[in-house]
Every structure is written in C-alpha cells, then in structure tokens.
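Before the break, one more example. Copy the sequence into your notebook; we will annotate it together after we see the structure.
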Amino acid sequence: MSPMIIAVVVLVVVGVWIVWAYNRFVRLVQHTSEAWADIDVQLKRRYDLIPNLIESVKGYMGHERGTLDDVTEARAKATQVHVDPTNITPDQIRAMAESEGALSASLGKLLAVAESYPDLKASQNFVELQRELTDTENKIQAARRFYNGNVRDLGIALESFPNNIIGNAFNFKGREYFELGENEEAAREPVKVQF
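Here is what the structure looks like once it is written out:
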C-alpha cells in the first residue's frame, strides 16, 4: 500500500469518527432537553392541581389560613421560574430546584394538616385530588431521574477520551443535575401539626 492510500484511509476513518462523535453529542443534548421538557410538563400539571386542592381544603381549614397561604405563595414563586430547555444554565436549575423544594415542603405541610380533618379526608373530591397529586409527584420524580440520567450520560461523554476532544472543539456543555437540595431534606422531615 502506498503512503498516499494509507493517509486517505486514516483521514476517512478520522472524519467518520468526528461525524459520529458530533452526532452523538447532538443526540445526548437533545435527549437532555427532552428530559427537561418532561419535568416541565409534570411541574405544570402539579401547578394546575394545587389551586383545586386548596379550594377543596379551604372550607374545612378556615383557621389554617397560614398553611394555605404558604402553599399559594410557594406555587406562585415556582411558576415564576423558567428554564429554557435549549439553554439550561446552572443558575436556572438551582432556582428551579429551590422553588420546587419549597413548594414540595409546603404541600407536605398542607397534606399533614389535612390529616387532622376527618370530614376532609372522607371528601371524594379531596381524596381524588390527593391521589392525582401523589401520582404527579411520582411522575416528577421519574422525570427528574430520567433527566439526571441524561445529564450523567452527557457528562460522561464530555469527559471521556477521545470524545472530549470533539465535545470541546464544538463547544458542547454539560448540564446541572436537578436536585432539590436543602428544601428536599426539609420535605423529607415529618411535619409537626399543632392546634
């Protein structure tokens, strides 16, 4: 084989590898953006359920106004945070995680307080809303795990040699994991109900 043919074969192999690696990064970025969109859909579903839940609870919990106000305020703050799936920044993820953690904690407190009202617990409307909210929370957790898995895969590809050469050359960036942080720990704590 002549050196010219070897050089051409090597260039073709390198060219094919560059195209493959680039397309892999594009796929990983798109999967990550799609995963974030799944989280966004579930969060919007939760935001839509909360006013109905509060309305069904209001009549029973007239003297628990502070709890209802906390949930309403946390929902309002959470709906104000916007994350652009095509340009997710660490600050956006942190802001979303913080607002969602606060909302989860206030919802947990509302549901714990609602346990003290037997008539409310027997209300079919409340039971159905609570079931839908639980289902939505589970879907949010699943979507969050899916997103974090895609972030992990993108990060591994960006740090693995020789793919990191292509990733850096074409300016592909990793994403932040979606973790609720401090508020997630607070949401796991048992809620104290006092009258």
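The two ends are 89 Å apart (CA to CA). DSSP finds seven helices and no strands in the chain. Try to locate both features in your own notes.
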